[in-house]
Write a structure and sequence with these properties.
The chain is of the alpha+beta class. Strands 5, 7, 8, 10, 11, 14 and 19 form a seven-stranded antiparallel beta sheet that branches. A five-stranded mixed beta sheet has the order 21-22-23-25-24. Helix 11 links the parallel strand 22 and strand 23. Helix 6 packs across helix 10.
Length: about 525
């Protein structure tokens, strides 16, 4: 039976390419056009203030993950005639599952599980990028004293934010000086001086590893912040792509064509040739160069990363398209208050976790889910359990992977009769299949974790001292306990029968449903 399930899952993943129709949107504007055609875009032409008003509109619109994408065409202080780099702001492109499905080449009504399977599929595919000599992002090139990043209509998303955060849904590009491998990540950063961009840089993140290598050489790290391209750019930049794999290659797989890259003006970094804007610069390890950064309304739903001196991107060039569009997003997730990061993380982190489990040799996994409200901090694993300790093996595999940084604090493992997308089902399993005295709740203390989780003591969240946070991770094993003795249980089963009606009884009731006076759609 276990072998049959494994074959079924392998076939299911392998058949994803038959469901996927890759789409090349060409750039951010092509993506916006596609959203407009699908009725997924709301354009706002009235004047909107970048100072908290824009963020509040986004917050109300994102709601529970059912609002449209937003294009703000009239930002206070960035109108016609003003000397600016951008006049418009786009946000919310991936703030619901329908638009994530569009990006992945799936039907808009595809279930979340299909989005996870498609992500798993693409994480195993590679389409190498190509270098080009010309690109629209080079239509305007600003260097030296002419640089002024305040010419971008960057919102102050929340009133308590420590500044105007420009790096919210960009791709920050760095390079491993040993291998030349590029890394793309989403790391927060705000406007500092007119040519400085204070950032939150942690050593445990991929760009933190790169940064340390450059610092060990006594060199500043080149960096490029990229704003506005196809939706696969922020999707892959925010996903924990396996070390040694270029996000550009996965982006190429998603769009079914190579990503066209062009060299930066002041470094050897490569960026998408037709993106909206690139801010180039270097980050110095000298604390004398640090500037104040934080706090910021973070993915946890709390303001995190207290104000303090942080690393700075010293800007050396800004290149941008004519009439460029700034791409940003609202962070911070609460129940019934979702956003782009919460929606995309729920898909990415589930797909990555499933691949981790498969690579580790954990059998019987039939579904993996991350609830959107907690951005992958909680992970649900549905398992066809065939031997004792299988749930603990799954949690150990997840926690031992580099994908566990900032995520997978709490892992639930449930039997395959439990719908892990339905919290009421999960809660029922917690109520009647979890016995703490039988080791169904396991703590894994002193683990690396999130510096932004307020449940961790503040003294344990010093990035300069520790490089990462401190977590006590938890496994909740809500599977039926295989230690239960079959002979002492229920007619040869470890658990009693559930109260589901027999099939013949349900079939009879279904056939007479409208006869009882109920509308047919409530069957």
């Amino acid at each position: 039976m276990q072998n049959e399930r494994s074959v079924k899952m392998s076939n299911e993943l392998g058949s994803m390419h038959n469901k996927i129709v890759p789409r090349q949107f060409e750039d951010l504007r092509g993506w916006i056009d596609a959203l407009r055609d699908e009725g997924e875009l709301q354009e706002i032409d009235v004047e909107v203030d970048w100072d908290c008003e824009l963020g509040t509109v986004a917050r109300k619109t994102f709601g529970q993950g059912n609002g449209p994408a937003l294009l703000f065409n009239n930002i206070t202080g960035y109108g016609e005639g003003d000397d600016v780099y951008s006049r418009r702001v786009f946000t919310g492109g991936l703030s619901n599952y329908k638009r994530v499905a569009m990006m992945l080449g799936l039907p808009k009504d595809a279930p979340v599980r299909d989005l996870v399977l498609a992500t798993r599929h693409f994480l195993q595919q590679r389409v190498e990028p190509v270098e080009v000599k010309e690109g629209k992002v080079k239509e305007n090139i600003v260097t030296g004293d002419d640089i002024d990043i305040y010419k971008v209509p960057v919102p102050r998303w929340h009133r308590e934010d420590g500044g105007r955060y420009i790096n919210t849904y960009q791709a920050t590009i760095t390079m491993d000086p040993d291998t030349g491998q590029h890394n793309l990540g989403i790391y927060r950063g705000m406007l500092g001086q007119k040519d400085t961009l204070p950032v939150l840089l942690w050593r445990a993140q991929n760009w933190g590893v790169h940064f340390q290598k450059w610092a060990d050489r006594g060199m500043k790290m080149p960096v490029a912040h990229v704003y506005g391209w196809e939706p696969s750019l922020p999707y892959c930049a925010s996903a924990p792509i396996p070390t040694g794999v270029s996000e550009y290659e996965v982006m190429g797989a998603i769009r079914g064509a190579p990503v066209e890259l062009i060299k930066c003006e002041t470094s050897d970094l490569m960026v998408p040739a037709n993106c909206e804007m690139v801010i180039e610069g270097f980050i110095d390890s000298d604390p004398e160069t640090f500037e104040m950064e934080g706090p910021f309304g973070e993915y946890t739903g709390y303001f995190g990363g207290d104000q303090g001196p942080k690393h700075v991107t010293k800007v050396t060039a800004v290149t941008y398209r004519n009439d460029s569009i700034h791409r940003g997003t609202l962070e911070g997730t609460l129940p019934k208050m979702l956003n782009e990061n919460s929606i995309t993380s729920s898909v990415q982190r589930a797909g990555v976790a499933w691949n981790v489990l498969e690579r580790a040799g954990v059998p019987g996994v039939t579904d993996v889910h991350c609830p959107a409200a907690n951005n992958g901090t909680t992970l649900m694993i549905q398992l066809n359990q065939t031997y004792r300790g299988q749930a603990k093996q799954a949690a150990a595999a997840i926690w031992g992977s580099n994908a566990a940084h900032l995520r997978y604090k709490n892992v639930w493992v449930l039997d395959d009769d439990i719908d892990i997308h339905d919290y009421a089902s999960v809660d029922w399993a917690f109520a009647y299949r979890v016995n703490a005295a039988e080791d169904d709740i396991v703590f894994f203390p002193g683990s690396f974790g999130s510096l932004l989780d307020p449940s961790t003591r503040l003294r344990d969240r010093d990035p300069m001292k520790f490089g990462t946070g401190k977590w006590c991770r938890v496994l909740i094993d809500a599977t039926i306990n295989l230690d239960f003795d079959l002979e002492e249980q229920y007619e040869g089963e470890r658990y009693p029968k559930t109260v589901h009606p027999h099939k013949e009884d349900m079939d009879k009731v279904n056939s007479r449903w409208e006869e009882y006076g109920f509308p047919s759609e409530t069957k």
